[in-house]
Amino acid sequence: MTGPFGRSTTRVALLVAAVVVVAVAAFEQAVSRLYLLNFSTAGPNASAALAVLLVSAPVVGLASSLPDRARTRASTGGALAVPVLLAVALLGSPVTAAVAASTVGAVTLLLLVAVLVRRPATVTPGAALGLLAVVLHRSLLDGTPLYATTAGRVVLFGLALCVAGGWFVRPRHEDTPPSFDADVAPLALFLFVEAAFLGAPGAVATWGLTSPTTATAAAAAGLALAGGLVALRGPPARVTLPVLAGGLVLAVADLLWLGLTAGAAVGVAQACVVGLLARGAADARSSCWRWGPAAMGQLFAVVLLFLFISSLNWAYMPAPLDSLTRGRSGLFLLALSATVPAAVALTAWGARAAAANAPAPDSAGTDLAPVDGDRRTALLAVGGALAGVGSVALPDRRGPASAEARPLTVATYNVHQFLAPDGDYNLEAVARVLRETDAGIVGLQESEGNRLTSGTVDGVRWLADELGYYHDYGAPTSAASYGVALLSAWPVRDTEVVSLPTHDSPRRLSMRSVVETPAGEVPVVCTHFQTQQGDDPDAVAVQGEAAERVVELAGDDPRTVLLGDFNVTPGDDPAYRVLADEFTDAWPAAAARSPSDGGTYPADEPVERIDHVWTGDEWSVRSAATHGGWDASDHRAVSAVLEDPDQSV
Q1: Side-chain half-sphere CA neighbours of 135 within 13 A
Q2: Which segments of the protein form a coiled coil according to its record (predicted)?
């Protein structure tokens, strides 16, 4: 038999931590790939059926029914399969990646349950350590998950190899087959909720535009405190379940709606979730339930997940989903978080029912009480928390912007929610494009990456730190829009965000900020109009209304610059006429252009110029160019070099 169960408690906890990191990453990977398969943008379709693969608990039931030798093979084969499946998820097409990543989730749950049955006291501290690692690497990688960048993928694959290797290294006397006979609902729902929401504190913070630093530090502290206490003192008593459940619900409600703690409530939420998992793990083996409640709970969570995604994209959903989900995204997230205490309560009830009808099950070979090794686990949790808190206090890599007199280069770029059309993340490709533009001010559209559907990747923050920009998100994730954002080599202030008129479209936004350039203040408006929906007269008319709203937002400062994906080509459309009456289209006004046609969409072979730079009367346009290709986004970026005839910039 291969397995970790004969080792010291600390070593087992470290293995659990590695499994949890891989499981969280695989879940996020699966959901983001489902999104690319139009899971959330084209309504229910064949790809939505792949979401059923996120329900991994039936694998535990299948393994439980196998003979001893087959269970041994399932355990060892599953551990060996983790790095292979993860490699397929990282390198495969969207469909292949979604299936492989979902399968990784099923296999890692199987491994965690095997540990849960033999070493229940190690699961919760190990899971807390794993989540501390998730929080730490997200902070160090500027808000991105491990699989979103090349370096992160290398680290993630290394952890998968550690899982496989750690499972095979065992004492010679450890030869009993693994058992999967436990109520796995608390563990399964814990992983689901952490991967879907709580495990990305930076993304949680942008839900209400609170401080990512505060949220990350609070999450690390909450995980360390709860994980350390469980390691030292064991699981909380059953009578504390209402307190833990109430604390979780109130903390999530504050994160979603109230904002009283500026994101610090994520620490309370994490502490409560860890405490709930510890109680569920303590009751798991003695509960009369097995994998059935976990499968049903996961299925319910998938439904809530789908409803949450629908609520962010309600305009693309068929009736009655559009009306049922619009404006209710927070409610679905709150319900999703509540599945954890519900699962733990059900497990506790199952344990009491089993105790009332039969003698307590034999606990030989388990470690329901903490042991000396758990003190080391607690110290690891504290150390992880200090690293997580310390990582958010690292000095800003942004250097001072050059103040020398030079022309002002601006750019606009629709970044496709940081997902390339081929299914991979485009962060590094977008960074290369922006370096090519050499722009001091960049307006981004489809910049709301802090969604579950894009792996909760904080692309705006990552680009800002990678390229040395200041940044402004514009609107919070809770605004349920595609997102607009601003990157600037100089400080940004006085941001104002407005909603634009729409017709059967998710919310579209426009933001106005003032950039403090070396030549003085430059008002910048970044916007994203809805499409014309196949020349629908109502959509075309609404574009005109949106243009009027943007002109009103811009004001009458002649130094204003407009950047955006306007989804309108030059011509007689109302939106283009409204803008042309007040501003200058930089492309035809440029003294030099590259290429000559200026097409921006689609990126591989552009036939339409729908992304524009507009300037106020005080600017002249020295040159304009398009940048990028299909590897970065479905749009090309547009840059323009501006000069103020009255003063050097």
Answers
A1: 39
A2: none
The pTM for the full model equals 0.89
Name residues whose C-beta falls within 8 Å of residue 464's C-beta, 6 or more positions apart in sequence: 142, 398, 470, 471, 487
- The residue whose two tokens read 């809530």 is 304
Alpha helix segments (H runs only) across 54-200:
57-64, 68-91, 94-118, 120-140, 150-168, 185-193
The CA distance from 230 to 121, in Å, is: 8
Task: State pLDDT tens for residues 335-372.
Answer: 999 999 999 999 999 988 887 776 544 444 445 545 44
Tokens 């009283």 belong to 260
For residues 610 and 529, the answer to whether their CB atoms sit within 8 Å is no
DSSP state of 362: P
- Tell me the pLDDT tens digit for each residue of 372-408: 445 555 555 556 555 555 555 554 444 434 445 468 9
**Token reading at 299:** 């299925």
257 vs 253: CA distance, rounded Å: 6
Pairing assessment for the beta strands 584-585 and 520-528 based on DSSP bridges = unpaired
Q: Counting Cβ atoms within 10 Å, is residue 400 exposed (0-12), middle (13-18) or buried (19+)? A: exposed
457 contacts 450 by C-beta, under 8 angstroms: yes
Q: How far is CA 59 from CA 33, 62, 74, 104, 447, in A?
A: 22, 5, 10, 11, 37
Residue 398 DSSP symbol: P
